[in-house]
Write a structure and sequence with these properties.
By secondary structure, the chain is mainly α. It has two domains: 4-367, no CATH class; 390-425, no CATH class. The chain is built from 21 helices and no strands.
Length: 425
Amino acid sequence: MQPASVFLLTKKDGEFLRVIASVSVVVAHCIHFWVEDFYAGRDVVSLSYLATILDQITRFTVPLFFFLSGFGLTLQFQGKPVPLAKYYRFRLLKILAPFLAWSLLTGFRHQEFIVNMPWSQDPWATAKTLLRFLFLDGFDYQYYFVIIIFQFYLVYPLLYKLGRSRLFMGFFLLLHLAFMSPVETYLQLLGLELPKLHPNLLLFHWFYCFAGIYAAFNKDFLVNLLSRWSSRKVVLFWAATLLLLNFEFLMNIRNQKYLSDADHFNRWAVVLYCLASLLLFMKSKGAIAARVYGNPRWQFLFTHVAPFTFFVYLAHTHVLRVVDYLLWEVTLFDFLNRIILVVAGTYLLAWFAQWLLEDFPRLRFCLGLPNKPQVIWSQVPGAGLLKLRRVRTGMASRNRSLAALPSQDAGRSRRIDLSAETTVH
């Protein structure tokens, strides 16, 4: 028996899990070409099938993001409740500003479609189509996560207190399973079908968010799950759910389902796999904490990787398209090189943008970058040569007035002036 504190999620745990999930999302998008190739050819002795197995391993990523969102937001509400108006003003703007900024940056890919819409013939219907395209479909395929999180923030203050109840946990689980695969297969046998709902609605992902809320309210929830399971049983359970994922994927494509239906998060098997992955992490977190959290070699994960996961999620497809243009081959070398270049390139872009916009906090906020720089870039030799600087009127007169101060205060004034050089020029 391990102490109950081992099974509680901490801030370090959340940051570490975000890093793993963020990198896994990028990897999944990098290898999707080979998944499509396996879907078309179905050759199990191929690089494409290995990519498909790796893709299935990453199925925990988006549900984990939703779980952490519900868990972290509930802990914040418990520690420091905020007025409803202030909550909506901060939370909705925090997700809406980066979403609109990156949609604008991505909009050039759809400019022909947008320009050719019938604006003069039917402006009202055209505007509604554009808004649906922006706020429900998304200008880029990974923006659906931001769209769902926005919906989650909208309803959270109204429903978060339900997280105390095990009854509602069971209810939302059943509701979730009622709309997940393979329910539609069983309904087809009866001549029925599920209602046609957009897949980017919160309904299809709410359970993962609510599970995070429930875990925050009921901190013994994970303890009760893990205290009776040995590490060996947890590993075997995780391996079994992974095998189930891959078997279900093979059966789905054999039954000629579309790839988007055969390989997505809306499956019963994914729910089991997410639970098994969480149990595996919680069972191993003691060893991870001892080897990673306190090790100076791994601190960059918490200072230079975890704070940029949101930016990386929004920006990585642009880097992927550049790499796709440069590396058009489909060899094993290209398979590995694409993953390395896209992951490293996206984080390099994040660090460069953070450094370049150090004096522009509002612009950083709109791009989904951290509020505060993690590195004092002014101390890096040569780093100020290309950096953007905010120009403020009256600075020259301020410097002249400081220079005119008596010699007694000269040292203090120089210190003030030097400290200001890192923020304003």
